[in-house]
Amino acid sequence: MRLQDYLRPAMSLENWRKLLRIAFERLENTEFLVRESYRVRDGNLEIDRQHLRIEGQFTDDMPNPMSTEQQRPLIQKLMRAYKLAASEMAMVQEEYRTGSNWGGYLKSTRKDFYDAMSEASVEKLSVLLNNFCRNCMSTGILGGEPGFLQFKNATACRALVHDFRAWLYSVGDFDAWRNLGMPPIGNPYGYNVAGLLVNNNSFYNDYRAFLCSGLVDDVEQPIVAEIGGGYGGFGYALLQRNGAKTYVNFDIPENLIVSSYYLSMAFPKKRILLYENRGVTLDRETLRQYDVILMPNFMVPALADLAVDIFVNTISFSEMEYATIAAYCRQIERTCKKYFYCENLADAPRGYKGFPESVFPGIRGFKTVTVSPSRWAHFDLYSASHIYMERLLVRKEETARAE
Description:
Elements: H1 3-7, H2 13-26, E1 32-41, E2 44-58, H3 68-89, H4 100-109, H5 111-118, H6 122-130, H7 144-152, H8 158-171, E3 190-193, E4 196-198, H9 200-215, E5 223-227, H10 233-240, E6 246-251, H11 253-266, E7 272-273, H12 284-287, E8 292-296, E9 308-314, H13 322-335, E10 336-345, E11 366-373, E12 388-395, H14 397-402
Parallel strand pairs: 5-6, 5-9, 6-8, 7-8, 9-10
Antiparallel strand pairs: 1-2, 2-3, 3-4, 10-12, 11-12
Helix pairs in contact: 3-6, 3-11, 5-6, 8-9, 9-10
């Protein structure tokens, strides 16, 4: 048989279409997010495919669900909490003060915010928070205006497809895609996936919420605390999944005001505690009185011993001063009852001061359960700038019994 006679059936138009369709769906798909499920029938593998259509970008302004006037009492509360925390920052221990990386970055990028606060302008602060996803309020935590403009001018969505696959393989539940939509708070932007606004951060945050929820699914009224919660994305995902009785976020005041706005707007009926004074003791009884607790970073020492079930830190320890990393590790050692989940730099950063996770101080009484390179497109082994490591630690049984 001649070679072309052998190949002719395989080269039929229908077979070529099938091969091209599979290649499109699996490798270079910029129109669909695809999930394959498998079953064996009569000894043969059968494949079913489900599709989520990527219908373009959400870049137009997104109306806020509450009017400016309706938000006014909340904005005033956030302004008071920020001013109190900022005024006390200069008096706290050195290791809890804002480090050189963030300190310089904030001064160079958030002039409009500092102007609004110095003028005590509720109106200006309201405008900034209503649009934080696209302005200076989200620099360093969601990309700010440069991040929005870069997204707006992008034509490919390979990172979205990559992160969707990483999320799906990790979560294992295609129907959970409905968790990925961002609420219309802060004028968000992202891809239109089957009518939902999905940002790459959606995948990171929902996976982390899925992981933490599973770790404490046998704990009655679990408490999850985070250091450096950014704009509030993980907290939002965790609460959406009902993964904790109480979510606690510790962050520097300039970022805390953003997550406080985001979570307060997203969950107006939840019991939320904002910063009021340094005298509060954050024991388990107090923590469980609230759904969300939002505290400046220097309040971590106010946590009682073994007060939280999981501590989380992602994409921030490496940017801090070494003394600050060490202080937080001591606090996690003292206050964390079960798990510490973190994702931080694998290598020394280039262009700024920072520390890879391999030089972090050890957390006594804990052992590593899993460690691997990050699964996300901007942080994995193929990243051109930042490679991160995911690590899950668990408190050793003997130290838990001793406590």
